[in-house]
TrEMBL record:
Family per similarity comment: Belongs to the multicopper oxidase family.
Protein name: Plastocyanin-like domain-containing protein
Protein's organism: Oryza glumipatula
Keywords for this protein: Signal
Segments traversing the membrane: none
Family matches, as PANTHER family: LACCASE-12, MULTI-COPPER OXIDASE
Residue ranges of every copy of the Plastocyanin-like domain listed in the record: 36-86
Any matching Pfam family: Cu-oxidase_3
One of the record's GO molecular function terms: copper ion binding
Signal peptide start-end: 1-27
Highest taxon, organism lineage: Eukaryota
Length: 98
């Protein structure tokens, strides 16, 4: 399966799930663009190639409130097939940064 068709299927799945979870008229749509690419990183005199999202490792944090629509467009510039994993941190208060 070509990487482009995998990305398209993933985006369609995310869009369908967000449409099903619509909560109300006050919801806003938050749009994110993920550019996935391989980047050379040097640590302790050793250079390695890692996969980054928008030049970041780990990838960017997405912010949304309950009821918001989230659209994520993923463009895979790396030679590898990718899968995106979502971790949800739900809290009424921001994390304590001590």
């Amino acid at each position: 399966m070509a990487p482009a068709s995998s990305v398209l299927r993933f985006c369609l799945l995310v869009t369908a799930l967000m449409t099903l979870c619509e909560m109300g008229a006050e919801a806003i749509t938050r749009q994110y663009l993920f550019d996935v690419q391989t980047t050379s990183v040097t640590r302790l005199c050793s250079t390695k190639s890692i996969v980054t999202v928008n030049g970041q490792y780990p990838g960017p944090t997405l912010f949304a409130r309950e009821g918001d629509h989230v659209e994520v467009t993923v463009v895979n510039h790396s030679p590898y097939n990718m899968s995106i994993h979502w971790y949800v941190y739900a809290s009424r208060f921001p994390p304590c940064l001590i």
